[in-house]
Amino acid sequence: MGAFDIACPICGGPTTIDPNFLSAMEDPIKKLLEWLERLVAIRKNHVPFFGTYDLYGRVENKDGSVGIDIYNVSGEAVGLHEKCWELAGKPDWHWFVKHRLFSGDHMYLPPFDKYSGQFYNWMVFVSSDDISTAFDPSTDETNSNRILKRIAEIQLYKRSCD
Ligand SMILES: [Zn+2]
Questions:
Q1: Apex 140 CA angle, 135 and 141, nearest 5
Q2: Count: domains in the chain
Q3: C-alpha 83 – ligand 1 centre gap (Å)
Q4: Residue 128, in any domain of the structure
Q5: CA of 125 to the centre of ligand 1 (A)
Q6: Considering the domain boundaries, does residue 5 fall inside one?
Q7: Alpha carbon of 85 to ligand 1 centroid (Å)
């Protein structure tokens, strides 16, 4: 059994944390990583939907009664970190289409791609120096700058393709 591991199309990082691993983490580290699980699904109708990843291609609300399919093949919505969405200026569906940003299986960007497998290798990731690339961008300026740089690259890429 494998989950559909989905990476944030903006920062390229994981959208869920292994629950067994999360419970074993120290509180200060947990606090820095919690933002990874707060997602938003941007849909064609422009109403943002907030929730968490259900491991099967959907962003779902707290009690799991409503879920939005964000998996690439559906083409109906894109799912990403709420904070990455905010850093990008809360763009709507058209922005994601224009820049060809979709959610899909294992689309991790460096350095996250090194830890991708059937399951994301949290054990190795957390004990590596790369862990700082997953720290909350609202409190970690280095990571905030990394994500903003990526957003600038996304916008530049589209311009060069026009
Ligand atoms: Zn992100």
A1: 135
A2: 1
A3: 7
A4: yes
A5: 16
A6: no
A7: 8
Model-level pTM?
A: 0.91
Q: Which of 51-55, 67-71, 158-162 is least confident?
A: 158-162
Q: Which residues surround ligand 1, an ion (CB under 5 A)?
A: 8, 10-11, 81, 84
* 122 to 15, 18, 24: CA distances (angstroms): 12, 7, 11
Residue 132: inside a domain: yes
Residue 7 lies in a domain: no
Residue 1 has pLDDT above 50, yes or no: no
Cα–ligand 1 centroid distance for 65 (angstroms) = 24
pLDDT at 161: 53
Q: Residue 56's domain spans which residues?
A: 19-161
The answer to whether residues 44 and 114 touch, using CB atoms and an 8 Å cutoff, is no
**What is the C-alpha to C-alpha distance for residues 140 and 145, in angstroms, rounded to an integer?**
9
Question: What is the token pair recorded at 21?
Answer: 């691993």
3-state SS assignment for residue 41? strand
